[in-house]
Amino acid sequence: MTELISLWVITIVAIALFCTTAEKRIGALLLGQSASPYDKPCKRLKGVIEYAFLQKRLFRDSYAGFYHFLIFWGFVFLAFRGWQNIIEGLFPKSNLLSFLGIYGNYYQAIRDVFVILVLLGVFLALIRRIFIKPERVENSIDAFATLTFIGLLMLSDLFYDSTTILISKPDWASFTPFSNLFSSLFSNYSDSSLVTINTTAHWINILTFLGFLNFLPYSKHFHIFTSLFNVYFRNLDEAKNIRKVDLESEHFGISKMNDFTWKEMLDFYTCTECGRCKEGCPTSLTDKPLKPKDYGNDLRDLLYSMSQEEIEGKVEIDEEKQIIGKIVPHDSIWACTTCRYCEWACPLFINFVPKIVGHRSYLTLEESNFPQEAQTAFKGMERQGNPWNLPRADRMNWAERLDVRHISEVEGKKYLLWVGCAGAYEESQKRVTRALVKILNEANVNFGILGEEESCTGDVARRLGNEYLFSALAEQNIETIKQYNVSKIITACPHCLNTLKVDYKDYGANFDVVHAVTFIKQLIKEGRLKFKKGIDKSVTFHDPCYLSRYEGDVDSARFIMNSIPSLKLNEMKWSKEKSICCGAGGGRFWLEEKIGERINHFRFKQILETGSKCALVSCPFCHTMLDNARGELNKEEIEVKDILEIVVQALEEE
Ligand code: SF4
Ligand code: SF4
After folding, report:
1. Pocket of ligand 2 (CB under 6 A)
2. pLDDT by residue (tens digit) across 491-546?
3. Which residue ranges have their beta carbon within 6 Å of ligand 1?
4. Is the overall model pTM greater than 0.90, yes or no?
5. Cα–chain center distance at 51
6. Of the residues 353, 579, 580, 582, which should be mutated to test ligand 1's pocket, given the most ligand atoms within 8 Å of the CB?
7. Lowest-confidence range among 127-131, 243-247, 631-635?
8. Domains of the chain
9. Residues whose CB falls within 8 Å of the CB of residue 286, separated by 6 or more in sequence, listed in order
10. CB of 269 closer than 8 Å to CB of 25
């Protein structure tokens, strides 16, 4: 009787404690800004199956994916077992399995296998943490405590079932090969010893289960509860990861906890601290203070430590709890290149870019507190329509002696060649623009340009937090483009591509935009471009973040390279979607880089590791950054070229 009363008291206290914590966690989410990730339920559910149940992203690392898969599915089955043990303990005459009839035996069979598989998963996880220990993995008490909880749950289950088989010979005994095998260890034990082991295992199982239930909301393994929701409510349009700032509002961007949306707060809860996000994060790799995992975890810890009034901003917040400048230092806010490696790598679809750009919006729009170097770019965009602040009248200099028409002179189904500021003003990129014109002419593409009517897309302004300037540029460009009724926009700049195609949706445009390499791949496939000359070179290719991770195109450039006779592609280890940023994105091209190793040097060294003497790119900013690194590292023997320059060479007669 004492045992039963104790179990009732422990269970009620444990469940009450859990509910109190859960209420606090859910209550905090309700204080966040609204978000509406409720569209396309079928697509969302499909993602839950693929990414949460089948754990597709985790299998990018097959070892970790395998053991995590075992542990996850073990949990799905064994959560029922935990409650079964508790209910049968609280109501000693109940037998939940008997309700299931023959299916109860099948359930026992599956559970029996999963106990062993989860134990195998725990073993593999321990081996990895203790002996293999990849750089991204940080051993913490939390991680070992969780594995201990899981191990104890499985072992106590095994002891309980195998002794039950010997004590009461249940119907399901013939369905559980592993418990049967394990029971042979106790075949010589007396009845009283078996009962003692059985009762002890039962208690250990229940106490571990209830303890684990209360440990989870304080640990990184809280994701066991939140990950399904986080995957369901994920951002479906991954390229669209900047929040439009309401310019009518009195407060801009993110400076307080309740400036985050509830979904962004759910991101904080969901982080498993696996470290995948920082593996290819350029700021983490070059010793800058911004490490995406730490950013999210610091904000999560802050959120846990805040009262409801503090989250709502109804009371004065201590200096120690200020987000801007304290929890997230200014150097972290301005370091991000918005490359999206972290978001691509995260198995649970946690977003970073919208949060970091949200901090920038606050600093730029509300405090006018941004790196002074950005001022030149802002002024240039405002006055001359380009961040170089070069005369608008010079925008067409690149086209001297070239036969290229203004879009208004082009009849019929027409394409707009979007030159971009780099394509118009940067020396190295002017060559690329000319190359693109030659390629389009060779394939008889009916295209025109906007000339001096084209202005900067505003990519840099938006990513440096200046939504005022961005909105002015966006509205002006949208109005100009709409006049000419173009069927498609072609550009050699992945940043222009993303801004025109994705960001401009916030301002009512829905342009069909394509990167030059994607378009050229199509022209080759249609037989409209034929290479006449081989290029006998071994090259490597640097995938630009805004083409690979934002646009999702890693194939077109490779298709083109493989189509050019004699050209040999030598891949970098960190290529395609795993490409490491050159350091220019997110407006960083215009800012000084004072902390840690220069990102373009870091990336250039990875190019050197391939042994290739030529690095191909398909973005004007990557082009300049890697070309600068080449000079600064005294590697003049290495060429940095845009892939379009090679295409033009291969199109020329021998
Ligand atoms: S977007 Fe890129 S630079 Fe910014 S935190 Fe993520 S990985 Fe790091
Ligand atoms: S944010 Fe995602 S990738 Fe980064 S540590 Fe957390 S779960 Fe892992």
Report:
1. 271-277, 292-293, 296, 345-346, 348, 350
2. 999 999 999 999 999 999 999 999 999 999 999 999 999 999 899 999 999 999 99
3. 281-283, 290, 292, 336-342, 352-353
4. yes
5. 13
6. 353
7. 127-131
8. 39-232 (1.20.950), 275-310+317-366 (no CATH), 381-524 (3.40.50), 531-651 (3.40.50)
9. 596, 597, 598, 599, 602
10. yes
